[in-house]
Amino acid sequence: MPSFSWRFIINPEFWFSEKYTDSCGITFKVRSVLYTKESDFQRIDIIDTYDYGRVMLLDGLVMYTEKDEFVYHEMITCVPLFAHPNPKDILVVGGGDGGTVRELGRHTYLNSITEVEIDESVVVAAKEYTPFTGCGYDNEKVNLIIGDGIEFVKNKNNAYDIIIIDSTDPFGPAEGLFSGEFYSNVKNALREDGIVVAQAENPYYDPKWMMRSVNNMRKAFHNNVECYLAYIPTYPSGMWNFALGYKGKKASESFDIKRYKNLNLHFRYYNKNIHRACFALPEFMKEIMQTI
Amino acid sequence: MPSFSWRFIINPEFWFSEKYTDSCGITFKVRSVLYTKESDFQRIDIIDTYDYGRVMLLDGLVMYTEKDEFVYHEMITCVPLFAHPNPKDILVVGGGDGGTVRELGRHTYLNSITEVEIDESVVVAAKEYTPFTGCGYDNEKVNLIIGDGIEFVKNKNNAYDIIIIDSTDPFGPAEGLFSGEFYSNVKNALREDGIVVAQAENPYYDPKWMMRSVNNMRKAFHNNVECYLAYIPTYPSGMWNFALGYKGKKASESFDIKRYKNLNLHFRYYNKNIHRACFALPEFMKEIMQTI
């Protein structure tokens, strides 16, 4: 055995990789694993990373990172809110990290914010380890219900102005949130002028998954569905799609500039020009939307 | 030694990783390495991959992939071409893979397409191993000059309508293409209404590099500079920035719809709505552009 002076002290390097397919993905170095739990629904990990700050993984997939979660959470809230003529009551399905209700809480003109999250463990972990999103639950307007969003919307009629589907990917606990029956119930739960928004995957790696929610939304909303995009570097391809169904005016052509200016919030991604620009889709994506 | 029946036959897996920082990056599986050369300027590799088809690496960094090169090459050509009122003579600095001149060649209203590429080995490799870009040189209008673009533009006055800086990253052979002196010479080489476009990195990982070309372009073009964005999944962050300097009208407000309609080309990314939308910048990027 060599003496101590011969030895090199090498710190182990821990890297996380998320595979986008069997043969490609993102990889990043992990400073430490802060939390790990097998809940009733999924495996939850919260890790601290060098490049992205704290990151929540569900079943080994990146849900959000401290560095870029602002893009997702601003874009899933601001676009429907400012496209709607007068939103008052909002329902969030999923969104257990709190980032979506945190953003909704900044829109002080809202009356109520209801969230139905199936996995309480996600909420508990986010409050403890990612307070930058978990702080969303500190707002008194936020009413958190632990339960199944699919069951919850079944009995609702004419109850909400906007419904936000802030779900995981379309397998495992979130699978039903991409189905046709669910969107049909969502439509009934919406009032006149109502808008539904769902995170809807990406067209580069997962065009079929993307189109599953888009097509089911189209059936329920008589083709009154638009997609919009945002740059999210820690999601597959960096090009993230949101599907939006509307009962009133076309969302891409509606923008309540008066409310936007009066509110005078400081956003980090969203602005007036982004509101219109995010609906401009590249040709290859329009082709996917016509053929799948 | 165990007998043959005991042995597992395991094919080796080769993975390529490009690090965006010391602690994060993209990783993908390689089917085979088709070509490797140390040229006078850089190391060139062409690899075949499972997800992205053929990929050219220069000094170990992804230059383009068969799957998504269309985004970069359409966006670096169509935006200046349709923003300009009447482009006739185009200069490309760099672009040795041929993708940019391939796209320019489709715009049949152009008189001349000149490319100055410093590294002939890149052109030779692209023609042989990535004919989907190398085919750009088959067009008789394309005049390829092997030489130093920095020297080339020094002696040019009032010679081009559009100059496209299709370079590698701002270190190594391309470093001078991000300098103030270079952009000053580019401005002199442009005619009235002239436009320069340069690939200009990304705001998530490399805001300082991004701002180096933007700021030097601003000095030469008296702040008549705009940035525009495209989704390119195999470039760092997937959010790619182009810097555009103009001598005539503001590019984001100029679009020659008549020429666009007459030409009637099938693009895979670019379209009328993208032309305007790509200039809409997220708030955090506008802040970077005001502070760095």
Question: What would you note in describing this structure?
Answer:
Two copies of one chain form a homodimer. Helix content of chain A is 30%, strand content 31%. With 292 residues, the first copy, chain A, is an alpha/beta fold. The first copy, chain A, has two domains: 13-63, Spermidine synthase, tetramerisation domain (Spermidine Synthase, Chain: A, domain 2), CATH 2.30.140; 69-291, Rossmann fold (3-Layer(aba) Sandwich). In chain A, the strands form two sheets. Chain A has a seven-stranded mixed beta sheet with strand order 8-7-6-9-10-12-11, sandwiched between helices. In chain A, helix 1 (69-83) packs across helix 2 (99-105). Chain A is globular, with a radius of gyration of 20 Å. Chains A and B meet through strand 1, strand 2, helix 9 and helix 10 of A and strand 1, strand 2, helix 9 and helix 10 of B. Strand 2 (24-38) of chain A pairs antiparallel with strand 2 (24-38) of chain B.
